[in-house]
Amino acid sequence: MLNVAVLGSGRGSNFQAILSALQAGTLPGVRICLVLSNNSTAGILEIARANDIPALHLSQRQFADESAFAAAMLEAFRCAGVDFLVLAGYMKRVPALIVQTFPRRIINIHPALLPHFGGAGMYGMHVHEAVIAARSAFSGATVHFVDEEYDHGSTVLQKEIPVLPDDTPATLASRVLEVEHALLPEALRRLASAPDAHT
Ligand code: GRF
């Protein structure tokens, strides 16, 4: 059983996709035990509360420094029995202590084909603007393990789609988002059904 915490900063549509897969019975061996956001008004927290899943607002701003923040995060994970983390639109860097505590047990979804269009500053609409500016023929989404560098850990799953001639950053973002909503639950399903894959 993977006891999963989902971390996000915004509307939570990727989290909703995981919930829908759980409700459809296509994610055996996965339990969501906590949702955490750095943003108190994030949709992802509302979705969690509406589904009776513990929802926690935790931001570095509430703490004196990163180590106090990381310690509070770890304590929240310990209390909830978390052993796996999913970053679903989490816009903050995960403290190094957390990455070290959960080696190959944290995944992130990125809205492009890593290793391209990743790294510092490559988030949200910036990613799709960069893909279009570079006239890339393809974009897509990548689920990868999280290490201490942005968008750097090894790939779990990737799916590409063509960039259409009349795509704008917004139209590309919405087609990539559809891919994300399929890819993230699928990655979780594979990791939960191959327990050694993430050790
Ligand atoms: C997604 O595009 C994700 O790849 C990116 O942020 C967006 C989050 O959307 N990192 P949502 O909050 O899951 O709706």
Description:
The chain has 199 residues and is of the alpha/beta class. It has a single domain (2-193), classed as Rossmann fold. Helices cover 37% and strands 22% of the residues. It contains 6 helices and 7 strands, in the order E-H-E-H-E-H-E-H-E-H-E-E-H. It has helices spanning 13-23, 43-50, 66-80, 96-101, 125-133, 169-193; strands spanning 2-8, 30-37, 55-57, 84-87, 106-110, 138-145, 155-162. A 7-stranded mixed beta sheet has the order 3-2-1-4-5-6-7, covered by helices on one side. Strand 1, helix 1 and strand 2 form a beta-alpha-beta unit. Helix 1 packs across helix 6 (169-193). The longest helix has 25 residues, at 169-193. The model has no long low-confidence stretch (mean pLDDT 95). 5-O-phosphono-beta-D-ribofuranosylamine binds at residues 8, 10-14, 88-89, 109-111, 177, 180.
Extract low-pLDDT stretches: none
The third-level CATH topology is: Rossmann fold
N-to-C SSE string, H for helix and E for strand: EHEHEHEHEHEEH
Largest sheet: 7 strands, mixed
User: Treating each run of at least 4 consecutive H or I residues as one helix, how many helices?
Assistant: 6
**Strand line-up of the largest beta sheet:** 3-2-1-4-5-6-7
